[in-house]
């Protein structure tokens, strides 16, 4: 035998009314708590205001502002000193960079070629000192200087032609 579900509107209405009554009781309890808190606050409010008035009278706005502004001024001065101490060396370095003279690229290339040929000359002299006779050393020195002059001329030509 199966159980049948009965639809009873009176029972449903009674349940919903009971829930509504309980919710109204909770709202009434919360409202009563708020009312008690407000009553307590209104009783104590004159005492709080008297105490605050005494404290406010002790605090003179001009004195407070003067103390605060003095502290702010000291802090700002200290921050400016720190900023200057860190920035001034950087400014001096930047100014010294501006005062330096830049060498043109042509001169830099000539220096590099000359340095390479000087290294080659050193190697030739060391080799000539150990293996070659003195007569051939003179020929190597002449060859070195001619090669150096030709290299410098080539660098000047290439720099002017190709705008290095």
Labels describing this entry:
164 residues, mainly alpha, 88% helix, elongated
In short:
The chain is an all-alpha fold and 164 residues long. The chain has helices at 9-58, 61-99, 105-131, 134-162. It has four helices and no strands.
Question: Helix and strand layout, with pairings?
Answer:
Elements: H1 9-58, H2 61-99, H3 105-131, H4 134-162
Helix pairs in contact: 3-4
What does this structure look like?
There is one protein chain. The chain has three domains: 17-59; 60-100; 103-162. The chain has four helices and no strands. It is elongated. The model has no long low-confidence stretch (mean pLDDT 78). With 164 residues, it is mainly α.
What is the number of strand segments?
0
Element-level helix/strand string: HHHH
Overall residue-averaged pLDDT value = 78
Radius of gyration: 50 Å
Give the number of domains: 3
SS strand fraction: under 5%
Q: For the terminal residues, how far apart are their CA atoms?
A: 108 Å
Number of helix segments?
Answer: 4
Gross morphology: elongated
Residue windows where pLDDT falls under 50 for at least 5 positions: none
Structural class: mainly alpha
Helix-residue proportion: over 70%
Largest sheet composition = none
């Amino acid at each position: 035998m199966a159980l049948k579900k009965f639809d009873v509107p009176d029972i449903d209405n009674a349940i919903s009314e009971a829930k509504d009554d309980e919710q109204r009781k909770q709202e009434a309890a919360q409202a009563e708590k708020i009312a008690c808190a407000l009553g307590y606050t209104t009783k104590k409010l004159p005492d709080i205001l008297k105490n605050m008035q005494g404290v406010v009278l002790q605090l003179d706005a001009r004195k407070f502002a003067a103390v605060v502004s003095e502290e702010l001024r000291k802090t700002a001065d200290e921050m400016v000193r720190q900023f200057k101490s860190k920035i001034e060396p950087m400014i001096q370095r930047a100014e010294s960079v501006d005062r330096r003279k830049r060498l043109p690229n042509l001169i830099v290339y000539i220096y590099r070629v000359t340095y390479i040929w000087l290294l080659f000359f050193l190697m030739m002299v060391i080799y000539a000192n150990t293996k070659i006779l003195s007569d051939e050393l003179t020929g190597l020195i002449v060859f070195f200087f001619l090669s150096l002059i030709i290299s410098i001329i080539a660098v000047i030509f290439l720099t002017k032609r190709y705008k290095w």
